[in-house]
Amino acid sequence: MSTDSGGAPYDAALMSAVADLGDALRGLVDASVRTAVPAADLQEVAAAVRTATGRLTAAVRPPGQLPALDDPVRFRRVYNPVAGVGSAFAPPLRLREEPGGVVGEVSFGLAYEGPPGFLHGGMSGLVMDQVLGAATIRAGLWGMTARLELDYRRPVPLDTPVVCRGRVTEAGGRKSVVTGTIALAEAPDRPLVEARAVFVLPREDLRAEYFARVTDASGRHAPPSRPTDATAPGAGE
Ligand SMILES: CC(C)(COP(=O)(O)OP(=O)(O)OC[C@H]1O[C@@H](n2cnc3c(N)ncnc32)[C@H](O)[C@@H]1OP(=O)(O)O)[C@@H](O)C(=O)NCCC(=O)NCCSC(=O)Cc1ccccc1
Question: Where is this region: Disordered (predicted)?
Answer without folding.
Answer: 216-237
